């Protein structure tokens, strides 16, 4: 820190070309300033200034030293400002992974809010991720925040519920159920179903199986898919019906009608998860924006 202080003293004197004015600018007395410059010259073994009774001028060595001193101070100031911005959570990098329904219903608004409120943070987004893949990606550090569906069996992750989402039925517009105001699970008996893949460890697969088991109906599963967009596309193609979280309705495709399930029907949770040891300010600020977007405060 002594060297940085000496550099600031030197640059100030070089800019003012006068010890008195430089001392005023530095809020110190002139004799101590002159002594500090003498000490710096002694340490360097060169004269930096030519002194007269009225002013001081830079020597050739002083001119060369001034250029480097300004560069050093500029880098130090920039580093300090960056450190303050990091501490304030306004710069950094984050990757966010989303389950299918969040990809379409939440991610558009979230990405806009983050761009407005945290423009210095470099965000990357991965949509249509299954929960098991999100957990693996969190552990591996490939994503920083996951918007997923509990339960998550990992003590190393902090998981906070963001909202409850009703289940609805997506049916082709030509299907008889499309004319109903609401649908019971029993109404889906004998109807071809499109579900998220069991083989890819989809949380929604287990939810749908449980929903039909509760109603005492054997599901007639005809297609298993990995992505929500593919699921809704197949419904639009008339290949079957699907039980999905209500926000999937944001993925509006011609040929698809969404009808609510008669209560009491199961709902599903949408939660935010991240590695519990992560405390970086920009991650916490991102979680705060996320909490505000879904209508509440995020409690880590």
Automatic annotation (TrEMBL):
UniProt keyword annotations, A-Z: DNA-binding, Transcription, Transcription regulation
GO molecular function: DNA binding; DNA-binding transcription factor activity
A cellular-component GO term for this protein: protein-DNA complex
InterPro entries associated with the record: LysR_HTH_N, LysR_subst-bd, WH-like_DNA-bd_sf, WH_DNA-bd_sf
Gene3D superfamilies: Periplasmic binding protein-like II, Winged helix-like DNA-binding domain superfamily/Winged helix DNA-binding domain
Family statement: Belongs to the LysR transcriptional regulatory family.
Matches recorded under PANTHER family: HCA OPERON TRANSCRIPTIONAL ACTIVATOR HCAR, TRANSCRIPTIONAL DUAL REGULATOR HCAR-RELATED
Name the record gives this protein: Chromosome initiation inhibitor
Source organism: Nocardioides simplex (Arthrobacter simplex)
């Amino acid at each position: 820190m002594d060297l940085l202080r000496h550099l600031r003293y030197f640059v100030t004197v070089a800019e003012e070309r006068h010890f008195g004015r430089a001392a005023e600018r530095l809020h110190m007395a002139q004799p101590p300033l002159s002594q500090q410059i003498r000490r710096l010259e002694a340490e360097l073994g060169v004269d930096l200034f030519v002194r007269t009774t009225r002013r001081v001028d830079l020597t050739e060595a002083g001119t060369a030293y001034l250029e480097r001193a300004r560069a050093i101070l500029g880098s130090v100031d920039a580093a300090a400002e960056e450190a303050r911005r990091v501490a304030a959570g306004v710069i950094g990098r984050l990757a966010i992974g989303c389950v299918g329904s969040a990809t379409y219903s939440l991610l558009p608004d979230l990405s806009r809010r983050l761009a407005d409120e945290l423009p210095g943070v470099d965000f990357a987004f991965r949509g249509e991720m299954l929960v098991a893949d999100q957990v693996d990606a969190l552990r591996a550090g490939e994503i920083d925040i996951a918007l997923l569906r509990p339960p998550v069996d990992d003590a190393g992750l902090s998981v906070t519920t963001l909202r409850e989402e009703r289940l609805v039925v997506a049916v082709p517009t030509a299907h008889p159920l499309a004319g109903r105001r609401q649908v019971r699970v029993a109404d889906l008996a004998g109807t071809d179903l499109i579900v998220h893949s069991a083989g890819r460890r989809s949380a929604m697969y287990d939810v749908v199986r449980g929903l039909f088991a509760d109603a005492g109906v054997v599901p007639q599963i005809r297609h298993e898919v990995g992505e929500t967009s593919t699921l809704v596309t197949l419904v639009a193609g008339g290949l079957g019906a699907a039980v999905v979280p209500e926000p999937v309705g944001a993925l509006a495709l011609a040929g698809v009608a969404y009808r609510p399930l008669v209560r009491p029907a199961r709902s599903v949770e949408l939660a935010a998860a991240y590695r519990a040891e992560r405390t970086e300010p920009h991650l916490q600020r991102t979680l705060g924006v996320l909490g505000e977007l879904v209508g509440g405060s995020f409690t880590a």
